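Recap from last week: sequence in, structure out.
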Amino acid sequence: MLKKLFGKSSAPQAVESAAKPEAEKSTTKQGVEKKDPKPRKPREKKPAKQEKPWSLDDYMVAPQEGKTRFHDLNLPMSLMRGIAELGYEYCSPIQAQTLPYTLDGYDAIGKAQTGTGKTAAFLITVITDLLNKPIDGARYIGEPRALVIAPTRELVQQIADDAKNLCKYTGLHVVSLIGGVDYDRQMKQLETQAVDIVVATPGRLMDFKERSQIYLDQVEIMVIDEADRMLDMGFIPQVKRIISHTPKKSQRQTLLFSATFTPDILNLSERWTHEPIRVEIEPERVAADTVEQIVYIVSADEKFGLLKKCLSGDKVESVIIFANRRDTTRKLHERLQKAGFKAGILSGDIPQNKRSRTLEDFKSGKLKVLVATDVAGRGIHIDGISHVVNYTLPEDPEDYVHRIGRTGRAGAEGVSISFACEDDAFMLPSIEELLGRKLNAVLPPEEMMG
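Predicted structure tokens:
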């Protein structure tokens, strides 16, 4: 799908352009000027060892009936090398169903939750398009070719990290824009070189837009991730404003993903996409197959004692404990630390730099236990989490599916333990309705109640 380049009312300073008199330089955007290096005496160098060009022969994946290999998609070789290093062999269902169309330039709306491979699906589409249609001539500072927006800081950071890994050998420049991180530092990332992919939360992106430090009129591909969560969090007005600054929907490619297809989401997708393909993936059945789900009937006063017993189990390697409220997570975190557990906390009132360090410590194994709210938990995509504990049952059944999806990933088995007390047991029927099965709610074993 050919991309139309749009003209501007003013001419910003180009990254690579002929020198201009000082008075003629634009102050709308900041350009990158190269200084002539001081002459140096040449030194004799040994000839550099020539590296053998990477090829698909370096990453053999056998064909399997009923599965789509990434080899089969005719992806750019520099992208395939990144895919090989990540160990991706066969497409997940959403990747197999969307990529043949999105790689051809079609818009798409997908019903898919975290853990289905949707992030790689849209990133592979974005990266392939940018590599296959390079821009000749000048590039401008603060002018991305692709834009991904997501509702939470953690999710944005996770998407950006995945993008950087996939782009490792492509030369594409990825920048993430999130609140809670030094604004000037993020601005420098935009100013040092032309940016190809921006991943951002709506609020921080609008901050940059309103200060005329980012321009969206050259966006070729727009990705809206977790549209339902953005709706719940009140971000849709900001998303509408962001989209209004991008090219018309017929002149850009748009990919929209949501865990649910409510009437509101379908109306928005119709407004923002152009003749999209539609893909629906039902991951809750996959989660039910790989995650053992236990529901303990307890009183509110018994929860913490039972939690300590659960965390002390022999097979418990790494645990995420979910609670519905920030104050609950804070108190729970304090009690766990006093009880001698190495625990971290992720919630909206924790500074972003501390949240990032906590997540890294959890990934590396320095922390065994993580206490999180649902919003913060959306950005956690870590293989090897052995247990998830629902200290309080979620008010939204969809959040239950998201929570238990943190474990049992990548084909591994996991355990979900939920505490149902007099305050939240009434939420079980709606969760069971969504899962399409009955949950076995039992009293805890006596030895765990001592």
